[in-house]
Hints:
By secondary structure, the chain is α/β, with parallel strands linked by helices.
Amino acid sequence: MEAGLVSVIIPAYNAAAYVAEAVDSVLAQDYPHVEVIVVNDGSKDNTLDVLRGYGDRIRVVDQANAGPPRARNAGLAAVRGEFVAFLDADDIWLPTKLSAQVAHLCAHADVSTVFTRWFVWPADADGVFRIPAVSPAPVVGNAVVADRSGWMYTKLLLECHLLTTTVMMRRSLIDKLGGFDVNLFNGDDYDFWLRASREAKVDQLDCIGAYYRVVPGSVSRKARPVNYERVVIEQALKRWGLTDPKAGTAMDRRVMQDHLDRLAIQFGYDHLASGDPAVAWASYADVLRQRPWRLKLWPAATKALVKRVLS
């Protein structure tokens, strides 16, 4: 493990349209000690050709398509740095992101995960993504977002505050956690942050470090057959419960149940609108079996049932 080196992992699947911008944003960082590892996860377009054009400026791991968690794990197996940062292939960084995060970790030995704010980046009316004017993060002295920093486990149970593209972690913590959960095609990152929050403090810097590109049809925007967010939370509850002993905090059981219900209802709505009505019905029914008095939910559940029968 090389002290001070930041290993950047970029999983890429059919990312030829955007991956060069992602890689270029890493190579343009003002922090000099960086290695770039791009995992080509069985792309069917010319992603690999784009990556080969960088020569020895990046390292390419080429593998058969295996999904996001396995791609990230392949990247982790190749890292040499003291710090690890994650970047999705369709996002880009501001040029001082890494230096700001390294400075924060070096100044706070009790923090092992640091992330930043991000700018949601939609295409212009003509479909072109033009970089907006956003002030870069300062290199040192960043304030933290107090309510999204520290011992974060119970807060993360209610919302995944971390965006993968903005996260940097100590390699020592990653080695302790092991890899991303390959059983979670989606939500593997959320599970990883929850596990990390049990081991050390997590801080959010009060600055924008990345542009999060809103790409129509991306994995994160499709209705999935499994409610992975709820699965991740339920796994965490089974493993650790509602209490964070290091923070001295506990989640109210009723608040947690309301949150799980909302996730199920939203999942049902997504499938009712543009997915599988059978999945929508199952999601609504799961809530109504335990809490049939949620009268406002019955019309949507009935609609889902009818659509399921007629489909």
